[in-house]
Specification:
Length: 111
């Protein structure tokens, strides 16, 4: 399976800055911990706006939808959160990592 092309960290951060400068509300999701064969390394980013638009990747497509949904709530409340995904947790039937790994993602509003 070919790798999904992911913008580099500076590109995603530039996108977040450009979106904020345009008046959009933005959250940043960052992979903070991985176990097993997680598809993205620690430090990978996903930037999300309040309309659900996003750029970057935290899992190669496995859990981005769930992260975007949580990020919209983070934008609305202003409260950061930490998400955990993997085959052994309660979200395994809704979202999961096809590679069998686990990841923790920190989602924070961008001021």
């Amino acid at each position: 399976m070919p790798a999904i092309d992911t913008p580099s960290i500076p590109d995603v951060l530039k996108t977040a800055e450009a979106w904020r400068d345009a008046g959009r509300s933005v959250a940043l999701a960052t992979v903070i911990e991985t176990w097993g064969s997680a598809p993205r390394p620690t430090g990978s980013h996903l930037v999300i706006d309040s309309d659900g638009n996003f750029e970057g990747s935290v899992s190669g497509g496995c859990v981005e939808g769930a992260v975007v949904s949580e990020a919209i709530e983070v934008i609305e409340t202003g409260k950061p959160t930490t998400l955990e995904f993997g085959v052994a947790d309660e979200t395994a039937w809704r979202v999961g990592l096809s590679c069998g790994g686990r990841i923790r993602v920190y989602v924070e509003p961008v001021a």
